[in-house]
Write a structure and sequence with these properties.
- With 210 residues, the protein is an alpha+beta fold.
- It has two domains: 83 residues; 119 residues, Sandwich (Immunoglobulin-like).
- 35% of the residues lie in helices and 26% in strands.
- It has two helices and ten strands, in the order ααββββββββββ.
- The strands form two sheets. A five-stranded antiparallel beta sheet has the order 9-8-7-1-10. Strands 2, 3, 4, 5 and 6 form a five-stranded antiparallel beta sheet that branches.
- β8 and β9 form a beta hairpin.
- α1 runs antiparallel to α2.
- The radius of gyration is 31 Å and the shape is rod-shaped.
- The two termini are 18 Å apart.
- The N terminus is likely disordered.
């Protein structure tokens, strides 16, 4: 995704101007109020209700300026995250734990430790159905069954499990890597589009590498 640095620079440049304008208005309001109090007619002083109303207005103006300042700072921070933060994902190789997209090419799987003797690689499709359960000693998953039938392209989930005779328990899940081709913001956070066509949340990434 193309990210414009001009937009970010413009937003950051506008923030000091807005803050300075608000501060000027605040100083002007304060000067007018103190001048009015200093020069009021001693024979016809300001009513207490008027004084309270103006003090309330003074407080409201002060709070509004503080709110505007916080909003300006928040906008600047979000603008920086939308550009620099997203740009950092582009071209990086990220991985999801246990899941990978099969598109006709062998899927490289990596584990933290080498598969023990008797380990099995259990593969499930997007519906959770087991499509392959074979002995596994390492390497990529071909996507082709022992019968020679190639499985449909799509998202698969992988588990390394022990031999059935050992209790058939899950030993580990592999990491499968894919390059980030696009990064964008969404209401739920950064979304990454991978080279295999998937879109994932940045929070789902298990590891990153060049």
């Amino acid at each position: 995704m193309e990210i414009s640095s001009t937009t970010q620079a413009s937003a950051q440049a506008a923030t000091p101007t807005t803050t300075a304008s608000s501060a000027t208005d605040f100083e002007t309001f304060l000067t007018l109020l103190t001048t009015q109090m200093r020069n009021q007619d001693p024979l016809n002083p300001m009513e207490s209700t008027q004084f309270v109303e103006q003090l309330a207005t003074f407080t409201s103006v002060e709070q509004q300026i503080q709110t505007n300042t916080k909003l300006d700072n928040l906008t600047a921070a979000l603008t920086a995250n939308d550009t620099n933060g997203l740009a950092a994902w582009l071209g990086r190789s990220v991985s999801l734990l246990g899941k990978a997209q099969y598109s006709g090419e062998p899927v490289a799987l990596s584990f933290d430790t080498a598969p023990p003797p008797g380990a099995r690689l259990v593969v499930r499709d997007a519906m959770g159905e087991t499509v392959s359960d074979q002995a596994y000693s390492g390497g990529a998953w071909s996507g082709v069954l022992p019968t020679g039938r190639e499985l449909p392209h799509g998202l698969y989930e992988f588990e390394l499990r022990s031999a059935v005779s050992s209790g058939d328990r899950m030993l580990a899940q592999p990491f499968a890597h894919s390059r980030v081709d696009e990064a964008r913001m969404s209401p739920s956070g950064p979304v990454l589009r991978l080279e295999d066509g998937r879109s994932i949340f940045a929070s789902d990434v298990a590891s990153i590498r060049n």
